[in-house]
Amino acid sequence: MDLASIIGLSLSIIVVVWGMVMGGDIMAFYDLPSILIVLGGTFGATMLANPIERSKNFPRIIKHAFTSEQIDMIGLIQTLVSFAEKARREGLLALEEDASQLDDEFMRKSIQLVVDGTDPELVKSILDTEIGLLEERHGSNKGYLDSIAELGPAFGMLGTLIGLIQMLGNLSDPDALGPGMAVALVTTFYGSVLANMFAIPMGKKLVQSSSKEILCRELMVEGILSIQAGENPRIVEEKLKVFLPPKMRRLLDEGKEEE
User: Fold this and answer.
1) DSSP sequence for 8-73
2) What global pTM score does this model have?
3) Which residue among 49, 100, 109, 114 is buried most deeply as judged by most CB within 10 Å?
4) What is the C-alpha separation between 41 and 21, in angstroms, rounded?
5) Mean pLDDT of successive 10-residue segments in the chain (259 residues)?
6) Domain assignment of residue 42, yes or no
7) Number of domains the chain is built from
């Protein structure tokens, strides 16, 4: 689980609930029809705006927002450099066995293309297409959350309008105007919470996660193409270090010095 997501969501809920409790009766914020309007309307309209397959994948989208796959960029560079050294000593065919033992499907496929003698331009084209499709899939997942973020407040306002219409139809009872207005406004509250506490932050988290994965794959492509070109392992390492932030570059250099 991603600790930042858990802490952030917990803190948001605690602060909002604390404000509700400190302001008076927390049950004043509960209204079942308002909940049904916001949740039912938002998710119904979101399903209408997206293919059914994407709606089926919604639990997986939420899971991605709360799980953090740690990518060892330094370890990846070290692996690619070791492959470059082996390819220089024994040839590209020597990497076939190593490729079969890799867990990362993208990297395994990349090395296999090189081992099979595929033209470098074709290798780059295939891998770039794969990265582009990955980015498109991630963008679609974020788009689903964006739909929820847009429609949640809209259905909150719709519920408020419904409440106001019902309240205005009961003007003969002045004592009911205050509670009626409160119920009408609580629907907007639900829509705002759905968008700003859940959908928008989760969408931003998916963007960051996607950026890291795409950067990792671009690093792989650069390394694989360098290995195929038979470049010196030192040059390969220097080219791949460009993908690292300064702090991680120092860690990589310090690790080499300790060896």
Assistant:
1) HHHHHHHHHHHHHHHTS-GGGG--HHHHHHHHHHHHHHHHHHS-HHHHHTHHHHHHHHH------H
2) 0.81
3) 114
4) 27
5) 82 89 81 90 93 88 78 88 91 86 88 90 93 91 93 92 80 67 84 93 90 92 92 90 87 66
6) no
7) 1
